[in-house]
Amino acid sequence: MEKYVQQKFVGERALFQSRDLTLEYCTFADGESPLKESKNITLDNTLFQWKYPLWYANDIKMTNGVLFEMARSGIWYSHNMTIQNTTIEAPKTFRRCSDLTLEKVTMPNAQETLWNCSRIKMKDVTAKGDYFGMGSSDIEIDGLTLVGNYGFDGGKNITVRNARMLSKDAFWNCENVTVYDSYILGEYLGWNSKNVTLVNCTIESLQGMCYMDNVVLRDCKLLNTTLAFEYSTVDATVDSRIDSVKNPYSGRIQAHDIDEIIFDNDEMNEKDTEIILEKNASE
User: Fold this and answer.
1) Closest alpha carbon to 98 in 116, 81, 79
2) Which among 75, 78, 80, 81 has a CA at the least distance from the CA of 62?
3) How many Å apart are CA 46 and CA 210, to the nearest integer?
4) Which of these, 49, 135, 147, 278, could form a disulfide with 154 (CB 3.0-4.6 Å)?
C-alpha cells in the first residue's frame, strides 16, 4: 500500500482515483475534489481545506482529521466510511452516502448535513445546524448532542439513545423512530410522523406530538408541554404533570395530572381517548 507522510497537495483532483493509499499528517490545500473516485484510503491526522474532498469515494477510514469550513459539500455519493475523532467544520457534508460510522465527531457548522443517507451508526457525535439528517434512514445513534431545528425530517428506521436535542420541529414526517433516555426541547415535536416511541425521555414542547399515527410514550416527563397530542393516536404513560392536552384522536393518556384538557373540535370524540390522572386515583 502506498503511503504519504507530511505532504501538502494543491490543485484540482490532486489524488484523483487513488487506490490502496495511506496518508498521515498530510494537507489538501487549494484545489477541488482531491480524492474524488478514490477507494480503500486510510487518512490519519489529515487536513482538508478546500471543496468536495471525498466524492464518489468508497472504503474510507479517517481518524483525527479536520474538514475546514471551505471543505464544504465534502462527502457526497460515498460508501463504507468510518470517521473517528474528527472535526467537520464544513457545512453540507454527507449526501446520498451509505454505510457510515461516525464516532467522536464534532460538527459545529452542520447545516444541511447528512441528507438522504442510509445505514448510519453514530456514537458520541456533536452537531450544530438546521436540517441535520433529513431524509436519511436506518440510523443507530448512541450519544448525540444536536443544536439545530428540523432534525431528521423525513427519516425512517431510527433508534436514538442518550441524546440531547435542542431542535424545533424534530422528527417531522418520520416513520419508525425509537428514542431512549434522551432530552428533547423544541416546539412542534414529531408532527406528521408514524410509529414513534419515546422511552424514559424528558420533553419540553409547544404543540408537541400532533398529527401523529401511533405515538407511544413510556415513563417520560413532559415539562412546559402545552396543546399536546392534537389529532394523534396516542398511548402515553407520563411520569409528570402535563400543562395541556388538546383534541387527541384516540388512545390512552396516563399522567400525574393535566392542567387543561381541551376538546373543541366536533370531529373528535372525547370518549375515544382514555385519560387516567394519578391524582384522582389517590383521592
Assistant:
1) 79
2) 81
3) 46
4) 135
- Tell me if 125 sits within 8 A of 107, measured CB to CB: yes
* Model confidence, pTM: 0.95
- DSSP-derived letter for residue 115 is B
Can you give the pLDDT of all 283 residues of the chain as single tens digits?
A: 899 999 999 999 999 999 999 999 999 999 999 999 999 999 999 999 999 999 999 999 999 999 999 999 999 999 999 999 999 999 999 999 999 999 999 999 999 999 999 999 999 999 999 999 999 999 999 999 999 999 999 999 999 999 999 999 999 999 999 999 999 999 999 999 999 999 999 999 999 999 999 999 999 999 999 999 999 999 999 999 999 999 999 999 999 999 999 999 988 889 999 999 987 654 4
Distances (CA, A) of 47 to 29, 58, 70, 113: 8, 19, 11, 19
Distance CA 206, CA 24 (A): 49
Residue 272 CA to chain centroid, in angstroms? 33
Measured in Å, how far apart are the chain's first and last C-alpha atoms?
75
b/e code 95-113 from CB counts within 10 Å (16+ = b)? bebbbbbbbbbbbebbbbb
Count Cα atoms within 13 angstroms, Cβ side, for 82: 7
Closest CA to 27 of 1, 55, 53, 2: 53
Please name the residue that has the C-alpha cell 422511552: 199
